[in-house]
Sequence to fold (129 residues):
Amino acid sequence: MIVPGPVVLISSMSKGQPNVMTAAWLAAQSLSPTLISVAIHPDRLTHQFVSATEELVINIPVMEALSTIHQAGQISGRDGDKFAALGLEPDESAIVEPPRVAGCAGYIAKPIRLSRFPQQVRTFLEGAA
Ligand SMILES: Cc1cc2nc3c(=O)[nH]c(=O)nc-3n(C[C@H](O)[C@H](O)[C@H](O)COP(=O)(O)O)c2cc1C
Fold:
């Protein structure tokens, strides 16, 4: 079985509404230039937000947040504000509109490049860090 490695929280924002989702289909594609890909299924609200704004933050969580990470991967922002529902604190990002998730170990926040797979099964969002 092929399993992905790191688990992160992807935060996004559209029309003033912040959202956050768990993602594990994340991979470093290149060191120079630095390229990271994350596959976000078209069903996700995150996909809608990121497609519209071409911005996201990759939040690298701490182990203590395991239960929150799990929940962020179970519920959708379509059903309400996930930051509030999960007790997450949004922190302003310097470079992009989407907030960072306070308390994470690290953040990658840059404009991204969208690329779509021919079958439209998944959309890859590449962020230059
Ligand atoms: C551990 C874990 C990893 C996940 N990884 C991904 C992923 O890489 N890509 C994806 O599209 N969904 C992934 N999901 C599912 C989304 O996090 C989930 O559908 C979420 O509810 C989407 O939220 P949204 O609709 O607010 O964007 C994962 C879920 C879990 C629990």
